[in-house]
Amino acid sequence: MKGIKFRLIVMNFLIFAVWGAYLCSLGVYLDNIGLAAKIGSFFAIQGIVSLFMPALMGIVADRWIPAQKLLGICHFIAAVFMALAGYMGMKYDSDITFGQIFPYYAISVAFFMPTIALGNSVSYNALSKAGMDIVKDFPPIRVFGTIGFIASMWIVNFTGYKESYMQLYLSAVWGILLGFYSFTLPECPVNKDVKQGSIIDALGLRAFSLFKQKQMCIFFIFSFLLGMCLQVTNGFATTYLDDFGASPEYANAFAVKHNVFLSSISQVSETLCILLIPFFLRKFGIKKVMVISFIAWFLRFAFLGAGNPAGFGLVLFILSMIVYGVAFDFFNISGSLFVDQNTDVSIRSSAQGVFMMMTNGFGATLGAYLAGGVVRNHLSGATDFASQMAGWSNAWYIFAAFALVVGILFAIVFKYKHNPETAK
């Protein structure tokens, strides 16, 4: 059992190390090379490809290629194209155009995004085969994914990679390592027994029948709405902190000079909050856990709007990073576990793909574009530092109000009776 856990720990570490190398620092790099106006597009593409790639790869994993092998194939392809994006950044430096780097980045992201759901499927399958309790044993394993994310963030921050194309090369290196490692993981089953005459089963679309179940349909709809929050701080938080550098009062503040490190407190918080998930799911059930997540998103955005890099304002920034752990984990990981517990093992990978499609696909895509519009609207016409910061604050408050309203609606609409006595 310990051997299985360790192998899954390494897999999760590498998956999120790939992502952590650029997710929270890409905006800084793009700003430095004159592509600040395109930041929204770079983050929105993660949502656009998640509209179809996780579900498609989930179908392939359930029907034709074992999930652990598909995980490796996807990472090999993603790493090659991320390295090409890094090469274009190195070749053209600040003269680079959107069209010279974005296509390579987009293809890389298209093959990376399904691997989060595939990694979950590989973990759930291995733990099930070992006779272990998924709800109890998966979160401590998944913690090391966040540790991998943090490790990449710290490397990028303290090497200065946050301002250069080197972050893309780092991501590619992690991806190559994981590509090879994936082929050593426990074998996942494929379901080749297709009912004759069933087009749905032939195409591997059975997971979409989950939308016929009222409870699951409502859950997926609110997963989409909560998914709109995912890319908001990923895309704009470090840029927001960077903008404080325009003021002599904050230019040398630690939170400005090391904004990626400050953001990594969010991931440190994740490592602790993941460990709380088994207790909260058993004690309170998925509905209350999701409501807690909505409240945490509200606080995350509100603290960013009210904070600044000095004094009590810095405390608010740190609190914003801390509550992110609850906001992300209580939605993303608890939601994935809920989907796994309410679907048949034969559609495990494709069901996880559908969950990713609704959150990182539809939700994150719409959220990235709307957030970009809100930020641009509130910063346009800002002629001095004070008006610029006021614009940023108002934007964060709008995001906070959205999370609060959707959370209230979820509490009213989602009908779920939790029985702690029968919960696994």
List the helices and strands and how they pair.
Blueprint lengths: L1 H19 L5 H7 L6 H11 L3 H11 L3 H26 L5 H15 L1 H16 L4 H26 L6 H17 L16 H4 L11 H14 L2 H14 L10 H4 L1 H16 L2 H30 L4 H31 L6 H32 L5 H29 L11
Helix pairs in contact: 1-7, 1-8, 1-9, 2-12, 3-6, 3-12, 3-17, 4-7, 4-17, 5-6, 5-7, 5-9, 7-17, 8-14, 8-15, 11-17, 11-18, 12-17, 14-16, 15-16, 15-18, 16-17, 17-18
Write down the Rg: 21 Å
**What integer is the average pLDDT?**
90
Helix content: over 70%
CATH superfamily: MFS general substrate transporter like domains
End-to-end Cα distance:
19 Å
Uncertain segments? none
CATH topology name, in short, is: Growth Hormone, Chain: A
Q: What is the CATH level 1 assignment?
A: Mainly Alpha
Counted up, domains total: 1
Compact description:
With 424 residues, the protein is mainly α. The protein has helices at 2-20, 26-32, 39-49, 53-63, 67-92, 98-112, 114-129, 134-159, 166-182, 199-202, 214-227, 230-243, 254-257, 259-274, 277-306, 311-341, 348-379, 385-413.
Description:
With 424 residues, the chain is mainly α. The chain has one domain: MFS general substrate transporter like domains (Growth Hormone, Chain: A, Up-down Bundle). It has 18 helices and no strands. The chain has helices at 2-20, 26-32, 39-49, 53-63, 67-92, 98-112, 114-129, 134-159, 166-182, 199-202, 214-227, 230-243, 254-257, 259-274, 277-306, 311-341, 348-379, 385-413. Helix 7 packs antiparallel against helix 17 and helix 15 runs antiparallel to helix 18 (385-413). The longest helix has 32 residues, at 348-379. The radius of gyration is 21 Å and the shape is globular. The two termini are 19 Å apart. The relative contact order is 0.15. The model has no long low-confidence stretch (mean pLDDT 90).
